Amino acid sequence: MEKILIIEDEEKIARFIQLELEYEGYQVEKALNGRDGLEMVKAQPFDLVLLDLMLPGLNGIEVLRRIRQFSNQPVILLTARDSVMDKVTGLDGGADDYITKPFAIEELLARIRATLRKASANNTAVTSHVLRAGPLELDASRRRACVYDTVLDLTKREFDLLQCLLENKNIVLQREVLLEKIWGYDFDGGSNAVDVYIRYLRAKVEEPFSLKLIHTVRGVGYVIRDE
């Protein structure tokens, strides 16, 4: 059963959509503000997100921007803002579709079906590229990393560094090699940058879960191993 998250602060509208979607056979959860919705997306996978733009706390465009930092899951913007610029901003920000209120429920359902079909086709075309070390799992194609079932909130640089270590699991990588792969040949900030980002990774990947996956090889560099 496909799972949909509704992020909508107008509770009556959220409830109405929820009932219609459940009647159509979808599993539905909802959040009434942007921050709660973002945390739910981080915590568990959804097949599609219906996202309002004018949300309290964290607006819809910011929620979308943060989702796109770690996930390419389908997002349909659902909003009363109907200017061309609003639509362009939403679609350029990574939304898969944009529908304005008021809307006919039949149109919303059709757009959801179309978006899910497109996502399914894309997922079939993309070869899964999942890397693992102990309970750590990184899906490169989805830009998603998790420990046990907890999704990690990684910056692009942290994600790329972790992916590089996992692609070379059990192989010691020199700091200079990591610098070239992640920061590029032109980076002149010194190898200390690697040490700084390894600390960031340990704080997010290891410490909250009492793990020891990333090992320092004194005078050389780093290696990731199964715990």
Structural class: alpha/beta
Average residue pLDDT: 88
Largest sheet: 5 strands, parallel
Give the helix proportion (percent range). 40-55%
Task: Describe the 3D structure.
The protein contains eight helices and twelve strands. The chain folds into two domains: 3-122, Rossmann fold; 130-224, Arc Repressor Mutant, subunit A. The protein is elongated. With 227 residues, it is of the alpha/beta class. The two termini are 35 Å apart. This is DNA-binding response regulator.
In short:
The chain is an alpha/beta fold and 227 residues long.
Q: Layout of SSEs?
A:
Layout: E1 3-7, H1 11-23, E2 27-31, H2 34-43, E3 48-51, H3 60-67, E4 75-79, H4 84-92, E5 97-100, H5 105-125, E6 130-133, E7 136-139, E8 144-147, E9 150-151, H6 156-167, E10 173-174, H7 175-183, H8 192-206, E11 214-217, E12 221-224
Parallel strand pairs: 1-2, 1-3, 3-4, 4-5
Antiparallel strand pairs: 6-7, 7-8, 8-9, 10-12, 11-12
Helix pairs in contact: 2-3, 6-7, 6-8
GO cellular component, one term: cytosol
DNA-binding region: 128-226
Pfam family, one: Response_reg
Keywords:
43% helix, 4-stranded antiparallel beta sheet, 5-stranded parallel beta sheet, 21% strand, 12 strands, 2 domains, 227 residues, alpha/beta
